[in-house]
Amino acid sequence: MVPEDAPGNYSRSPSKPRRFLEFLRQTPMWPHIELRGDFGPVSRDDLLQAHTPAYVGAFLAGTQPLCASNGLRWSKEFRDSVLLTNGCLSAAIHAAVARPEQVTMAPVSGFHHAQPSRGSGFCTFSGQVIAALQLYRGQGLSGAWVDLDGHFGNSIEDSREFAPDLDRAIPPDMNLNPSGSHGAYLAHLERLLANLEALVTAGEVHYVAFAHGADSHEWDQLGSQCTTAEWLEASELVYGTLRRCGERLGRPVPVTLALFGGYRDDHPESVLGLHAMDLACGLNVLCDAGLNYEAEVRAPGWAEF
Ligand SMILES: [Zn+2]
C-alpha cells in the first residue's frame, strides 16, 4: 500500500502500515483480524474540502517547494500512497459507522499537523478533517478524535475557519489532546474523556476515532509523556470510556483506530509493539477478546550492552 521510506526522510511512518501488519501476523491478535482493501484514493474534490486549490494542485503535480511542505521527499509513488492513506482513514470510519460492533482500524499516519494551505511535520493532508466533513455532509454525523500522539494535533483546529461546518462535524473540544506528562497527562486525559462520554451519551457525538501515537512514550526519539505502564493505562482509560458509553447507549459506539507517530530507529519493534498492545487492549475491553498479549518495549541504549 505504501512505498518504502525514501532516503533522507526522517519519518518511517510511510512504511508503517506494511510493517505493522507483518508484526501483527506474529501475534495472537491475527485470528481476530479481517483485512479489507475495498477502498480507493481520495479525489481532488475530496482534498479541496479541507485544502486550498493552490496546495492541492502543487502536491498532486509535485510543484516545489509546496509539495514538500510536509518535510518529506516528494515522488509520484509517495503522492499516490498519501491519497490512499487518506482514503483508508475515511473508509475505515465509514465502515465503523456501518458495523459498530467491530473495532475498525486504518493502520495509517500522516494527517494531524497538515493545514489548509500546506503540509507540516510529516503530515500532508488533513485526513481527519476530510473524513469528518464527508460523514457530516453525507450522513449528518458528528465525531470526536482522541489524539494521544505525543504532539498536539493542530489540523482540526487550524481548519475550522476554512470549513465552518467542521464545528458540527467535530464539535469544539472533541479534538482531545491531553497535555503534561505522567500522572498529570493521565489526569488531564480522564477529564477530557468525561467530557467525551457526556457528549456521546447525549447523542451529540456519533462516532469516535482514536490514534494512540507511540511518540507519547517517553523512550521515543520525539516523545516524553508516558512510561510503558502509563501509556497502556491511557489505552485502558480510552477503551473503558468507550465501553461505558456503549453500555449506557445500549449499542456499541463506532470506533476507528489509527496509528500516528512513533519514531524510534534504535528498535522500531518497540513502536509496533506499543501499537499492537493498544489494539489488544481495545479488542479485550470492547469485544471481550480475552487476549493475553505483551510486547517487548526496550529501553534506549539496549544495543550497547
Ligand atoms: Zn507526533
Describe the structure.
The mean pLDDT is 94. It is built from ten helices and five strands, in the order H-H-H-H-E-H-E-H-H-E-H-E-H-E-H. It has helices at residues 16-24, 44-48, 53-61, 76-98, 127-139, 155-159, 166-169, 182-201, 228-249, 268-287, and strands spanning 103-106, 143-147, 175-176, 207-211, 255-258. It is an alpha/beta fold and 305 residues long. The chain has one domain: Histone deacetylase domain (Arginase, Chain A, 3-Layer(aba) Sandwich), CATH 3.40.800. The structure holds zinc ion.
CATH class: Alpha Beta
Overall residue-averaged pLDDT value: 94
* Total domain units: 1
- Indicate the CATH topology: Arginase, Chain A
Instruction: Round the Cα radius of gyration to an integer and report it.
Output: 18 Å
The appropriate CATH architecture is 3-Layer(aba) Sandwich
| Number of strand elements | 5
Distance between the termini: 37 Å
What spatial order of strands do you see in the largest sheet? 1-5-4-2-3
Counting DSSP H or I runs of 4 or more residues, the number of helices is 10
Order of helices and strands: HHHHEHEHHEHEHEH
Main sheet specs: 5 strands, parallel
- The dominant shape is globular
Bound molecules: zinc ion
CATH superfamily descriptor = Histone deacetylase domain
Quote the beta fraction: 5-15%
Structure at a glance:
It contains ten helices and five strands, in the order ααααβαβααβαβαβα. It is of the alpha/beta class and 305 residues long. A five-stranded parallel beta sheet has the order 1-5-4-2-3, with helices on both faces.
